[in-house]
Amino acid sequence: MNKGSSIKILHIISGLRSGGAENILYSLCQHDKEYRHVIISLTEFQDGGMIHNNENVSVHKLNFSDRKTNLFELFKLYKHIRQIKPDIVQTWMIHADTIGGIVARLAGVKNIFWSVHYTNLVKGKSKKSTILLTKINAFLSNFIPKKIIYCAEKSREVQESLGFKKTKGVVVQNGYDVECFTQNTSLGSKFRNELDIHPEAFVIGHVGSYHPLKDQANLIEALTLLDQRGFNFYAVLAGVNLDNNNTSLVSLIKDKGLSNRVHLLGRRNDIPSIMNGIDLFILSSESEAFPNVLNEAMACGTPCVSTDVGDASLILGDTGWIVPSKDSESLYSSVIKAVQEKESNHRSWSQRSVACRQRIVQKFSLEKMVRKYKEVWINVKKHAV
Predict the structure, then answer these.
(1) Chain-wide mean pLDDT for the chain?
(2) Domain 4-175+365-384 classified CATH 3.90.1150.10?
(3) Percent of the chain, pLDDT > 70?
């Protein structure tokens, strides 16, 4: 078996937009200086892509369509794999698991690993193609991957109940750059100044893409209850389509009388600034696997309220509040608890903030995640030799 930098890992991912799996792949490749990493994105980059060529990572892009599989692009993928001659192929996201896994096997690669970053499939909210591919992958899991790497225990539980090969599953929880996501009052103050928010105002934050499974309607309803019951606050929502061009969201906020309280920021590249500028982070999702944003908020010392989805309760521990999904009254009640603690018990709130960061540093470091990925890859490769 090759050792050190001669080991070549080929990552095949559905696309390189800003998202949870993409962020984890980016962190993994940037942090690991021992192996050589090559990335193939099945679709064109959006916003230029977040991963670029450097001395340890090379990036290739194909032009697969979301609606149809192009035979020419399949051949290009096959040709890339044959030319790269990877020791290991690691696929990311469901379309890449299917397409990348099959083509890699046809190209002669034996050590193929899937990475699963989703949990529930909800009829009417999950794409029909995603539901179909999940059923296909359940069958293919018997033959294609050597191991299936889940980012969360909940994700493993759900996929195995759908037929994924149980003996192949292993959980590697996501890790975070705690030097990038850290407590920084200067960043927080700058962020508030940008939005003209008073330093003493209570600010609620939410970061994520606009999607039915993220259930921003639940969040807006909880904010409405806060407003109706006389609490003074501001809220900032950042992420894909969480902007003023989203007419349905803007109309909902206006109808609820929250236009003067809610800021829609759209996609941002300064997430650490947002996390430092808010007092409380809210995850209102109906479904998640391992919600990265909770870790990012907590690493910045920001307490969280989250719906009971995926591994959210495992991430928060006793540092925050867990509520049932689709229950705006419970979400509201937990926010009130946070507001009251911050206003009446500064010492307890400060201790909670410290505990948030300590939990991420101790349990979900980037170094730990990289080490576990490499252990899975190399242990399987050793047995294959």
Answers:
(1) 90
(2) no
(3) 90
Q: Are 92 and 14 in contact (CB under 8 A)?
A: yes
C-beta separation of 334 from 321 below 8 A: yes
For residue 46, name the pLDDT band (cuts at 50, 70, 90).
low
pLDDT band at 171 (very low <50, low <70, confident <90, very high): very high
For residue 185, pLDDT beyond 80: yes
Neighbour tally for 248: CB within 10 Å: 10
Question: What does each C-alpha distance from 306 to 76, 98, 346 come to in angstroms?
Answer: 43, 32, 22
**Could you give phi then psi for residue 374, rounded to 5 degrees?**
-65, -35
Give how far Cα 27 sits from Cα of 177, 195, 198, Å.
8, 30, 34
Class of domain 185-363: alpha beta
What amino acid occupies position 197?
I
Q: Could you give the CA distance from residue 302 to residue 295 in angstroms, rounded to a whole number? A: 10
Give the E-state strand segments of 163-318 in sequence order. 169-171, 203-207, 234-238, 262-266, 280-283, 304-307
Domain boundaries, the chain: 4-175+365-384, 185-363
